[in-house]
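hey can u check if this looks right to u? its 327 residues, i copy pasted from the old doc so theres a chance i mangled smth
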Amino acid sequence: MNEIEIYKTSDNKTEIEVRFDGDTVWLNQMQMAALFNQTKQNISLHINNCYKEKELQKTSTVKESLTVQKEGKRTVNRKIDFYNLDVIISVGYRVKSKQGTQFRQWATQRLKDYLVKGYAINEKRLQETENQLNALKQTIGLLSDVAQSKNITGSEAQGLLKVLTDYTVALDILDKYDHQTLKIKKSKSKETFRINYKEAKKAIEGLKNKFGGSALFGNEKDKSFKGSLDGIYQTFDGKDLYPSVEEKASHLLYFVVKNHSFSDGNKRIAAFLFVWFLERNNILYYEGRKVIDDNALVALTLMIAASKPDDKDMMVKVIVNLINNKI
Protein backbone atom coordinates (compact mmCIF):
# COMPACT_ATOMS: atom_id res chain seq x y z
CA MET A 1 0.00 0.00 0.00
CA ASN A 2 2.75 2.40 1.08
CA GLU A 3 0.58 5.47 1.60
CA ILE A 4 1.05 8.34 4.04
CA GLU A 5 -1.81 10.42 5.44
CA ILE A 6 -2.03 13.19 8.00
CA TYR A 7 -4.21 12.45 11.04
CA LYS A 8 -5.55 15.39 13.05
CA THR A 9 -6.81 15.03 16.60
CA SER A 10 -10.36 16.20 17.29
CA ASP A 11 -9.10 19.42 18.89
CA ASN A 12 -6.93 20.09 15.80
CA LYS A 13 -3.93 20.67 18.07
CA THR A 14 -1.96 17.64 16.96
CA GLU A 15 -1.08 16.41 13.47
CA ILE A 16 0.56 13.03 12.92
CA GLU A 17 2.02 11.54 9.74
CA VAL A 18 0.50 8.04 9.52
CA ARG A 19 1.95 5.29 7.33
CA PHE A 20 -0.37 2.76 5.69
CA ASP A 21 1.45 -0.40 4.67
CA GLY A 22 0.72 -4.13 4.71
CA ASP A 23 -3.02 -3.70 5.47
CA THR A 24 -2.34 -1.84 8.71
CA VAL A 25 -1.07 1.52 9.98
CA TRP A 26 2.29 2.28 11.61
CA LEU A 27 3.42 4.85 14.18
CA ASN A 28 6.69 5.25 16.05
CA GLN A 29 6.96 5.94 19.78
CA MET A 30 7.29 9.71 19.35
CA GLN A 31 4.12 9.79 17.24
CA MET A 32 2.22 7.71 19.80
CA ALA A 33 3.42 10.04 22.55
CA ALA A 34 2.00 13.01 20.60
CA LEU A 35 -1.25 11.14 19.85
CA PHE A 36 -1.91 10.09 23.45
CA ASN A 37 -0.35 13.17 25.08
CA GLN A 38 2.14 11.01 26.98
CA THR A 39 5.91 11.00 27.42
CA LYS A 40 7.98 8.81 25.11
CA GLN A 41 9.23 6.90 28.19
CA ASN A 42 5.65 6.10 29.23
CA ILE A 43 4.79 4.89 25.72
CA SER A 44 7.90 2.70 25.68
CA LEU A 45 6.93 1.18 29.03
CA HIS A 46 3.42 0.25 27.83
CA ILE A 47 4.78 -1.24 24.59
CA ASN A 48 7.25 -3.41 26.51
CA ASN A 49 4.49 -4.55 28.88
CA CYS A 50 2.19 -5.64 26.05
CA TYR A 51 5.02 -7.84 24.74
CA LYS A 52 6.01 -9.12 28.20
CA GLU A 53 2.42 -10.10 28.93
CA LYS A 54 2.29 -11.84 25.53
CA GLU A 55 -0.70 -9.78 24.49
CA LEU A 56 1.00 -9.35 21.11
CA GLN A 57 3.86 -10.96 19.20
CA LYS A 58 6.75 -8.56 18.56
CA THR A 59 7.83 -10.16 15.28
CA SER A 60 4.56 -9.38 13.50
CA THR A 61 3.74 -5.99 15.03
CA VAL A 62 6.98 -3.99 14.81
CA LYS A 63 9.28 -3.14 11.92
CA GLU A 64 12.42 -1.08 11.56
CA SER A 65 12.53 1.82 9.14
CA LEU A 66 15.33 4.15 8.06
CA THR A 67 14.24 7.72 8.78
CA VAL A 68 15.91 11.00 7.86
CA GLN A 69 15.97 13.50 10.73
CA LYS A 70 17.21 17.06 11.16
CA GLU A 71 19.37 17.49 14.25
CA GLY A 72 20.47 21.10 14.39
CA LYS A 73 22.20 21.77 11.09
CA ARG A 74 22.87 18.09 10.46
CA THR A 75 20.80 15.60 8.49
CA VAL A 76 21.00 12.21 10.20
CA ASN A 77 19.78 8.81 9.05
CA ARG A 78 18.43 6.76 11.94
CA LYS A 79 16.73 3.38 12.21
CA ILE A 80 13.45 3.75 14.10
CA ASP A 81 10.92 1.13 15.19
CA PHE A 82 7.36 1.53 13.93
CA TYR A 83 4.42 -0.28 15.54
CA ASN A 84 1.24 -1.46 13.87
CA LEU A 85 -2.39 -0.70 14.72
CA ASP A 86 -2.65 -3.59 17.21
CA VAL A 87 0.12 -2.07 19.32
CA ILE A 88 -1.31 1.45 18.96
CA ILE A 89 -4.73 0.23 20.19
CA SER A 90 -3.14 -1.68 23.09
CA VAL A 91 -1.22 1.40 24.22
CA GLY A 92 -4.38 3.52 23.84
CA TYR A 93 -6.29 1.21 26.20
CA ARG A 94 -3.43 1.19 28.72
CA VAL A 95 -3.28 5.00 28.91
CA LYS A 96 -7.12 5.17 28.84
CA SER A 97 -7.06 7.68 26.00
CA LYS A 98 -10.24 8.85 24.21
CA GLN A 99 -7.99 9.95 21.39
CA GLY A 100 -6.89 6.34 21.04
CA THR A 101 -10.49 5.31 20.33
CA GLN A 102 -10.92 8.12 17.82
CA PHE A 103 -7.68 7.18 16.06
CA ARG A 104 -8.70 3.51 15.92
CA GLN A 105 -12.03 4.43 14.31
CA TRP A 106 -10.31 6.70 11.79
CA ALA A 107 -7.60 4.17 10.93
CA THR A 108 -10.08 1.30 10.58
CA GLN A 109 -12.23 3.30 8.16
CA ARG A 110 -9.23 4.34 6.11
CA LEU A 111 -8.04 0.74 5.91
CA LYS A 112 -11.48 -0.29 4.65
CA ASP A 113 -11.27 2.46 2.03
CA TYR A 114 -7.88 1.19 0.90
CA LEU A 115 -9.20 -2.38 0.77
CA VAL A 116 -12.00 -1.30 -1.59
CA LYS A 117 -9.51 0.73 -3.61
CA GLY A 118 -7.16 -2.25 -3.85
CA TYR A 119 -9.98 -4.48 -5.07
CA ALA A 120 -10.83 -1.92 -7.74
CA ILE A 121 -7.19 -1.77 -8.86
CA ASN A 122 -6.99 -5.57 -9.14
CA GLU A 123 -10.18 -5.60 -11.20
CA LYS A 124 -8.63 -2.96 -13.47
CA ARG A 125 -5.45 -5.02 -13.85
CA LEU A 126 -7.44 -8.09 -14.87
CA GLN A 127 -9.26 -6.03 -17.48
CA GLU A 128 -5.95 -4.62 -18.75
CA THR A 129 -4.59 -8.15 -19.11
CA GLU A 130 -7.60 -9.17 -21.19
CA ASN A 131 -7.13 -6.06 -23.31
CA GLN A 132 -3.46 -6.97 -23.80
CA LEU A 133 -4.34 -10.44 -25.03
CA ASN A 134 -6.88 -9.01 -27.46
CA ALA A 135 -4.35 -6.45 -28.71
CA LEU A 136 -1.74 -9.17 -29.22
CA LYS A 137 -4.28 -11.21 -31.22
CA GLN A 138 -4.95 -8.14 -33.38
CA THR A 139 -1.22 -7.64 -33.93
CA ILE A 140 -0.71 -11.27 -34.95
CA GLY A 141 -3.70 -11.06 -37.28
CA LEU A 142 -2.35 -7.94 -38.94
CA LEU A 143 1.10 -9.50 -39.35
CA SER A 144 -0.55 -12.48 -41.01
CA ASP A 145 -2.54 -10.22 -43.37
CA VAL A 146 0.63 -8.43 -44.46
CA ALA A 147 2.47 -11.70 -45.05
CA GLN A 148 -0.39 -13.11 -47.17
CA SER A 149 -1.11 -9.98 -49.20
CA LYS A 150 2.48 -9.21 -50.23
CA ASN A 151 5.43 -11.16 -51.54
CA ILE A 152 7.74 -10.15 -48.74
CA THR A 153 11.52 -10.34 -48.81
CA GLY A 154 13.65 -12.15 -46.26
CA SER A 155 14.49 -8.95 -44.39
CA GLU A 156 10.83 -7.91 -44.34
CA ALA A 157 9.83 -11.30 -42.95
CA GLN A 158 12.56 -10.98 -40.32
CA GLY A 159 11.18 -7.56 -39.44
CA LEU A 160 7.65 -8.88 -39.06
CA LEU A 161 8.90 -11.61 -36.74
CA LYS A 162 10.88 -9.10 -34.67
CA VAL A 163 7.81 -6.88 -34.23
CA LEU A 164 5.87 -9.86 -32.94
CA THR A 165 8.71 -11.05 -30.66
CA ASP A 166 9.52 -7.61 -29.24
CA TYR A 167 5.87 -6.74 -28.75
CA THR A 168 5.18 -10.01 -26.97
CA VAL A 169 8.05 -9.33 -24.59
CA ALA A 170 6.91 -5.73 -24.13
CA LEU A 171 3.49 -6.98 -23.04
CA ASP A 172 5.08 -9.62 -20.76
CA ILE A 173 1.62 -11.13 -20.39
CA LEU A 174 2.54 -14.20 -18.39
CA ASP A 175 3.63 -12.71 -15.09
CA LYS A 176 4.61 -9.06 -15.42
CA TYR A 177 1.51 -7.47 -16.89
CA ASP A 178 1.28 -4.99 -14.03
CA HIS A 179 4.76 -3.70 -14.88
CA GLN A 180 4.30 -3.43 -18.67
CA THR A 181 0.62 -2.99 -19.42
CA LEU A 182 -0.79 -2.22 -22.83
CA LYS A 183 -1.10 1.47 -22.29
CA ILE A 184 1.00 4.47 -23.07
CA LYS A 185 3.06 5.28 -20.04
CA LYS A 186 4.05 8.75 -19.01
CA SER A 187 7.27 9.58 -20.84
CA LYS A 188 10.44 10.92 -19.26
CA SER A 189 11.74 12.03 -22.67
CA LYS A 190 11.90 15.77 -23.19
CA GLU A 191 10.84 17.16 -26.54
CA THR A 192 13.80 19.11 -27.90
CA PHE A 193 12.68 19.28 -31.53
CA ARG A 194 9.35 20.31 -32.99
CA ILE A 195 8.87 19.23 -36.58
CA ASN A 196 7.53 21.81 -39.05
CA TYR A 197 6.50 21.77 -42.68
CA LYS A 198 9.44 23.76 -44.07
CA GLU A 199 12.12 21.64 -42.38
CA ALA A 200 10.32 18.40 -43.21
CA LYS A 201 10.13 19.30 -46.91
CA LYS A 202 13.83 20.16 -46.91
CA ALA A 203 14.64 16.83 -45.27
CA ILE A 204 12.55 14.93 -47.83
CA GLU A 205 14.36 16.72 -50.66
CA GLY A 206 17.68 15.74 -49.06
CA LEU A 207 16.49 12.13 -48.90
CA LYS A 208 15.61 12.20 -52.60
CA ASN A 209 18.98 13.69 -53.60
CA LYS A 210 20.94 11.23 -51.47
CA PHE A 211 19.24 7.99 -52.43
CA GLY A 212 17.63 8.87 -55.70
CA GLY A 213 14.00 8.62 -56.62
CA SER A 214 11.52 9.21 -59.37
CA ALA A 215 10.49 12.69 -60.45
CA LEU A 216 7.29 12.12 -58.50
CA PHE A 217 9.10 11.18 -55.26
CA GLY A 218 8.00 13.59 -52.53
CA ASN A 219 5.58 15.40 -54.86
CA GLU A 220 2.57 16.45 -52.79
CA LYS A 221 -0.80 15.51 -54.22
CA ASP A 222 -2.72 17.76 -51.81
CA LYS A 223 -2.33 19.54 -48.47
CA SER A 224 -2.67 16.41 -46.36
CA PHE A 225 1.07 16.22 -45.54
CA LYS A 226 0.96 19.52 -43.71
CA GLY A 227 -2.15 18.19 -41.98
CA SER A 228 -0.17 15.12 -40.84
CA LEU A 229 2.50 17.31 -39.26
CA ASP A 230 -0.05 19.57 -37.61
CA GLY A 231 -1.99 16.51 -36.45
CA ILE A 232 0.68 15.32 -34.01
CA TYR A 233 0.47 18.67 -32.17
CA GLN A 234 -3.30 18.71 -31.75
CA THR A 235 -4.54 20.04 -28.43
CA PHE A 236 -7.70 19.57 -26.41
CA ASP A 237 -8.66 21.95 -23.64
CA GLY A 238 -5.22 23.53 -23.87
CA LYS A 239 -3.32 20.23 -23.50
CA ASP A 240 -1.47 18.14 -26.10
CA LEU A 241 -3.61 15.29 -27.38
CA TYR A 242 -0.41 13.26 -27.79
CA PRO A 243 1.72 14.51 -24.87
CA SER A 244 4.86 12.35 -25.14
CA VAL A 245 7.59 12.43 -27.78
CA GLU A 246 6.97 8.71 -28.40
CA GLU A 247 3.27 9.28 -29.08
CA LYS A 248 4.01 12.14 -31.46
CA ALA A 249 6.58 10.03 -33.34
CA SER A 250 4.18 7.08 -33.59
CA HIS A 251 1.33 9.24 -34.88
CA LEU A 252 3.70 10.92 -37.35
CA LEU A 253 4.56 7.51 -38.85
CA TYR A 254 0.91 6.49 -38.90
CA PHE A 255 -0.45 9.73 -40.41
CA VAL A 256 2.15 10.02 -43.19
CA VAL A 257 1.65 6.39 -44.26
CA LYS A 258 -2.16 6.46 -44.16
CA ASN A 259 -2.71 9.94 -45.64
CA HIS A 260 -0.77 8.93 -48.77
CA SER A 261 0.10 12.56 -49.45
CA PHE A 262 2.80 12.00 -52.10
CA SER A 263 2.70 10.75 -55.68
CA ASP A 264 5.57 8.39 -54.86
CA GLY A 265 7.57 7.33 -51.79
CA ASN A 266 4.91 7.54 -49.05
CA LYS A 267 6.20 4.61 -46.96
CA ARG A 268 9.87 5.55 -47.36
CA ILE A 269 9.16 9.17 -46.44
CA ALA A 270 7.07 8.14 -43.43
CA ALA A 271 9.80 5.80 -42.12
CA PHE A 272 12.50 8.42 -42.75
CA LEU A 273 10.61 11.20 -40.95
CA PHE A 274 9.87 8.85 -38.03
CA VAL A 275 13.58 8.06 -37.57
CA TRP A 276 14.56 11.70 -38.14
CA PHE A 277 12.05 12.89 -35.52
CA LEU A 278 13.29 10.35 -32.94
CA GLU A 279 16.93 11.26 -33.63
CA ARG A 280 16.32 15.02 -33.34
CA ASN A 281 14.59 14.38 -30.00
CA ASN A 282 17.52 12.21 -28.78
CA ILE A 283 15.56 8.97 -28.33
CA LEU A 284 16.49 7.04 -31.48
CA TYR A 285 19.27 5.14 -29.71
CA TYR A 286 19.37 3.30 -26.42
CA GLU A 287 22.66 1.86 -25.17
CA GLY A 288 24.20 2.22 -28.63
CA ARG A 289 21.46 0.63 -30.71
CA LYS A 290 18.29 1.84 -32.39
CA VAL A 291 15.13 1.46 -30.30
CA ILE A 292 13.45 0.05 -33.42
CA ASP A 293 15.80 -1.54 -35.94
CA ASP A 294 15.48 -1.08 -39.70
CA ASN A 295 13.77 -4.40 -40.46
CA ALA A 296 11.22 -3.86 -37.69
CA LEU A 297 10.53 -0.34 -38.98
CA VAL A 298 9.87 -1.73 -42.48
CA ALA A 299 7.48 -4.25 -40.96
CA LEU A 300 5.66 -1.60 -38.92
CA THR A 301 5.28 0.60 -42.01
CA LEU A 302 3.82 -2.32 -43.98
CA MET A 303 1.48 -3.13 -41.07
CA ILE A 304 0.20 0.46 -40.93
CA ALA A 305 -0.38 0.48 -44.69
CA ALA A 306 -2.37 -2.78 -44.47
CA SER A 307 -4.29 -1.84 -41.33
CA LYS A 308 -7.89 -0.71 -41.11
CA PRO A 309 -8.87 2.65 -39.59
CA ASP A 310 -10.20 0.80 -36.53
CA ASP A 311 -6.66 -0.52 -35.93
CA LYS A 312 -5.17 2.97 -35.44
CA ASP A 313 -5.06 3.06 -31.64
CA MET A 314 -3.69 -0.46 -31.47
CA MET A 315 -0.97 0.33 -34.04
CA VAL A 316 0.10 3.46 -32.16
CA LYS A 317 0.28 1.53 -28.88
CA VAL A 318 2.40 -1.15 -30.56
CA ILE A 319 4.89 1.45 -31.80
CA VAL A 320 5.06 3.35 -28.50
CA ASN A 321 5.58 0.12 -26.55
CA LEU A 322 8.37 -0.93 -28.90
CA ILE A 323 10.12 2.44 -28.53
CA ASN A 324 9.85 2.24 -24.75
CA ASN A 325 10.63 -1.47 -24.47
CA LYS A 326 14.42 -1.12 -24.75
CA ILE A 327 15.12 -4.83 -24.29
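Strands lie at 3-8, 15-21, 24-28, 62-71, 74-84, 235-236, 239-240, 285-286, 289-290.
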